[in-house]
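Now for one record.
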Amino acid sequence: MTSTITVDLTNCYGIDFLNHTFDFSNNNMPVLVYAPNGVMKTSLAKTFRQYANNNEPEDIFFPERKSTFSISDDSGAGLEREAVFVIDSIDEKYQSTRISSLLASEELKARYDEIFGSIAEKKEALLKILKKPSGLTKDVDVAISGAFKVRKEDVLVALARLEREVKEGANVDFASLKYKILFSDKVLELLQNADVKALIDDYTKIYEQILDQSLYFKKGVFNHSNAETIAKNLKSNGWFEGGHSVNLNHAGQRSEITTDADLIAAIESEKEKILTDPKLAEMFQKVDGKLTTAELRNFRDYLIENPFVVAELSDIDAFKQKVWVSYLVQNSREYFELIEEYDTSRDKIRTIIGEAEKEQTQWEAVIALFNDRFSVPFRVQVENKGDAVLNVSAPQIAFYFEDREGGAARRTDRAILDKGLSNGEKRALYILNIIFEVEARRKAGIESLIVMDDIADSFDYKNKYAIIEYLNDMRSNEGFHLVILTHNYDFYRTVRGRLGVFGDNRLLSNRLNGALQLIPDHLSDNPFAGWKQNLTDPVVLVASIPFVRNLAEYVGNDVTFEQLTALLHIKDQTRTLTVSELYGMYQSVLTANSFANFGTISGTVFDLLMTACEEICKVEDDDLSLEQKIALSVGIRLMAEEVLIGEINDSAFVEQIGKNQTRKLIRKYERSGNCDPVVLRAAKRVALMTPENIHLNSFMFEPILDMSGHHLKALYGEVKACTGT
């Protein structure tokens, strides 16, 4: 089994460069990547998808740049494209093409194939023969089933019902016609035209009137085609050569025919008289006038050569069936061999299908898993089970929407379901198809790299946990290697814990000089636990202030809370509080000896913070740690408040501010009517980009983790410029 997979790409959908090796060697541990929106998730997933679809990636914004992408296993061999499966955040149209493979009961399928094999062979032989007279090069069974209005799977049933007609040898007069020409999509579209329909109806009425006046022919009983068939049969059986004759009867008068040539001549003469009748010829010209487009030229030529066809066009469905019966009569040997085989095996097939209906399949196991784990207002169940198990037809998924008033669940079309479901419920329905694909790959033994792009986005917590549980099921298969991409820190943290992802398999995305990096995430579940032992680091010390402040508030230490608040917002003592005093505050909140001694650091906390911010801004890497982002955010906010307080110049207003100080200062400044637009813009960006509270709950890390280090450093420079320093 593959233990590592290396990806190397340039200029792919906004990713300038990435070279990374995903390591699955530790018990097939998934790779979990946290990436803020807009950094790389969708671009990377799209690149993988292009590879899986046998397409080449590109840079859609700079198409002139050469794009390259390679993906290889631990031996250096390129991954099979089939082995890459990308799961998008949502794709409502997605449906696994492998669902049918979950349904085959091997024992029943073997029995079915054994019985049906001979039928299928004779069926294919007949369909192959029918290609020539019909002019169709493929999908003959589709055309037949369409003509007799049955499903493609039921074409044998339709053919069996024609046995009597074929035995009687009816309708051979249409055997020379080309089905492909007569019933092309363009022709059928034309025949729906109201004017064309009216012309054909008029032609048919006149044709029938003339036929009723014929010497020999009679509408619906004996037409020229019947006569030609009889003439051919008499000739082939030596009727006239045996000294026999035929009497043609008209109005009580008989005309004796003694040779086959005379009989054919009489038939042709009567046919010519009918088809050249002036009224009929006039009507044909009107019909012909509607058929002059290039697309319909073959059809037009056909009508000129076979004008009697026009009368059949008034009932196009019946005409289709007559043509197919004519073909079958002409190929009766192959037809009857098929029907005989079908009749002999039909009862056995019914027995097998009945057994298949009772079988439990992997497909049902998937549906049971979905119904049990996911919280949605509908139930899924299998229909056409017997045909599906035997791969006679594609599986059909039925949805039953639950009645909140206690009534019976109602069968609901997928289209209606899509209109009424929430985004989260639609996503759950999408996941059902994903599970089908995954289980089919599991059954087929396809070793797969499965890339997931925010698979749990928009889910409520119950369904989010259901997804995580299924991810755990997937990782237990050593042939599935999971790369999970997410911008949701709560999901990232939960997957990390529940799937036991640790070490270099939990990654953060980072950009450095345009290149994308996936770097190990060393952030613990509770970062403060580690920070307490490293408070001699100025950045860590400053970043821990909001956390200790929260603790002071929780335990009711109001004095320390107010003092620490002065290190997060500009107060009278903000610039004068020393690190030594900060140490005393920490001692009043935290248990003795539970944190590192930093009391020997000299100077004020404010100066320590600003020095730390300057050092952070020198870091070239966009990947700032959580503590660096918190420290920089605090420094930005303090600088911005100092600028605003100086511009407002109203100490009484500032002193009475309780909560939400930054926003109240911005509002006051904006309403002053004399504000600098550069300062106001910078202040508003501070309110937007720096979180007002950093909480102990790690879920609240997400806003600041999502914030780009580059943007925070740029904002620091923008606010610093407003200070004039």
Remarks:
- Residues 106-134 form the longest helix (29 residues).
- Residues 220-224 have pLDDT under 50 and may be disordered.
- DSSP finds 31 helices and 14 strands in the chain.
- The longest strand covers residues 4-12.
